């Protein structure tokens, strides 16, 4: 098998720029082409990153493409990923992987029939901060994790996104849009979920866009925007997950996990880096010693300052895993279980009943310093 697998991207919106700009950091992959139903968008990205602009059908038939990255809107993730598999190519999807268990199981069967791989974002749990928290938990220093809290709350995407409509439709909302980062990190830190319960609300039935170029335009809201959920894990841990786009400000930490012997404070799972703090029983809270994990090193300037961003790491890990014949970390099973959790939360919010998970998965293998460095391309 070739040392680098050819990659094509379907969907040239906002997130595509991160994939194109960060892909050269990693070995095992080579960006070759991009496609979009809007050919102008495809041509713009192709010119920007020196790629081929193709129609979707052309990309699916392109013999130089081994893996297709699905960056379309969530409502069509299933149909696009199905087309990719039917074309005989591996697929790596942006989150959420699909919008139902049935869709995910259908894709799984199609992939297994053809001997293909499916992967899915998020890969932010590869970040140095989250792998440091994983190492602390796996060391046993906190004892068994028994409970925790997670909070991801703000006031919606209409304040910054140029076309925020889909965020407020079924298939999005804070659980399915931001929730994958939190749920996936919880699974890699604690393990699979057994059952969930939730309350859901939609305080505002429409939103006013304040970002350009559509400032002042009103858009409908057809999915819950405040969801308070309770997750019971297979190991017995119970974690509260609060998600909302109806909050202007709050003082909650992104993620805290409570063990029999201490507490770990985990930074925002939406990002790769951050400060990990912990307590050892009654001792004062302290930072974990800094370690030399490559995916915790700030490499991009954001509004908050320099931050670590290594999106595409999950795609590279999948490509290398295909070549090496090993499991990849951003697996279909992990992504499908996260979808099971999130859609279960939404069903519980509608019904007022506990919802048992239909799937389970293994925790993905930890990505330590050595393993992370092995994903990076050699510097010239």
In whole angstroms, how far apart are the ends?
23 Å
Mass-distribution shape: globular
Major sheet description: 9 strands, mixed
Q: Helix-strand pattern, N to C?
A: EHEHEHEHEHEHEHHEEEEEEEEEEEHHEH
Measured as a percent range, the helix fraction is 25-40%
- The strand line-up of the biggest sheet is 16-15-14-13-7-12-11-8-19
Total number of strands: 19
Low-confidence stretches: none
How many helical stretches?
A: 11
Q: Compute the gyration radius: what is it?
A: 20 Å
Alpha-beta content class: alpha/beta
Give me the oligomer status: single chain
User: What is the residue-mean pLDDT, rounded to a whole number?
Assistant: 95
Strand content: 15-25%
Task: Briefly characterize the structure.
With 380 residues, this protein is α/β, with parallel strands linked by helices. The chain contains 11 helices and 19 strands. A hairpin with a 2-residue loop joins strand 17 and strand 18.
Map the helices and strands.
Layout: E1 5-10, H1 16-22, E2 29-35, H2 39-49, E3 52-54, H3 56-61, E4 67-70, H4 77-86, E5 90-93, H5 101-114, E6 118-120, H6 128-139, E7 145-153, H7 173-177, H8 179-190, E8 193-201, E9 206-208, E10 218-220, E11 226-233, E12 238-244, E13 255-259, E14 262-266, E15 277-280, E16 286-287, E17 300-302, E18 305-307, H9 313-324, H10 332-351, E19 355-356, H11 369-373
Parallel strand pairs: 1-2, 1-4, 2-3, 4-5, 5-6, 7-12
Antiparallel strand pairs: 7-13, 8-11, 8-19, 9-10, 11-12, 13-14, 14-15, 15-16, 17-18
Organism: Mesorhizobium album
Protein name: Gfo/Idh/MocA family oxidoreductase
Domain GFO/IDH/MocA-like oxidoreductase: 130-264
């Amino acid at each position: 098998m070739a040392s680098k697998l050819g990659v094509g991207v379907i969907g040239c919106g906002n997130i595509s720029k991160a994939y194109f700009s960060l892909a050269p950091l990693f070995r095992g992959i080579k960006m070759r082409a991009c496609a979009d139903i809007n050919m102008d968008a495809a041509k713009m990205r192709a010119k920007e990153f020196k790629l081929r602009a193709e129609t979707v059908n052309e990309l699916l038939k392109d013999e130089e493409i081994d893996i297709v990255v699905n960056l379309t809107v969530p409502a069509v993730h299933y149909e696009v990923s199905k087309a990719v598999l039917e074309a005989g190519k591996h697929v790596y999807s942006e989150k959420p992987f699909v919008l139902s268990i049935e869709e995910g199981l259908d894709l799984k069967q199609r992939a297994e029939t053809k001997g293909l791989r499916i992967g899915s974002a998020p890969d932010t749990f590869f970040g140095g901060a989250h792998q440091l928290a994983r190492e602390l938990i796996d060391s046993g220093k906190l004892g068994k994790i028994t409970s925790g809290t997670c909070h991801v709350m703000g006031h919606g995407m209409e304040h910054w996104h140029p076309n925020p409509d889909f965020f407020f439709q079924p298939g999005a909302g804070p659980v399915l849009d931001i929730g994958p980062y939190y749920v996936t990190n919880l699974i890699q830190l604690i393990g699979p979920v057994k059952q969930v319960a939730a309350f859901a609300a939609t305080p505002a039935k429409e939103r006013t866009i304040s970002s350009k170029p559509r400032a002042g335009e009103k858009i409908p809201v057809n999915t819950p925007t405040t969801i308070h959920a309770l997750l019971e894990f297979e190991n017995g841990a119970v974690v509260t997950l609060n998600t909302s786009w109806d909050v202007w400000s709050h003082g909650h930490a992104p993620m805290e996990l409570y063990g029999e012997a201490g507490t770990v404070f985990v930074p925002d799972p939406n990002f790769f880096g951050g400060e990990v703090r912990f307590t050892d029983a009654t001792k004062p809270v302290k930072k974990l010693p800094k370690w030399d994990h490559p995916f915790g090193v700030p490499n991009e300037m954001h509004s908050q300052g320099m931050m670590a961003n290594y999106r595409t790491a999950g795609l590279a890990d999948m490509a290398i895993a295909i070549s090496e014949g090993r499991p990849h970390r951003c697996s279909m099973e992990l992504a499908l279980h996260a979808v099971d959790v999130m859609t279960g939360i939404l069903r519980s919010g509608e019904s007022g009943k506990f919802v048992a998970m239909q799937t389970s998965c293994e925790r993905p293998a930890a990505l330590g310093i050595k393993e992370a460095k092995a994903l990076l391309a050699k510097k010239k």
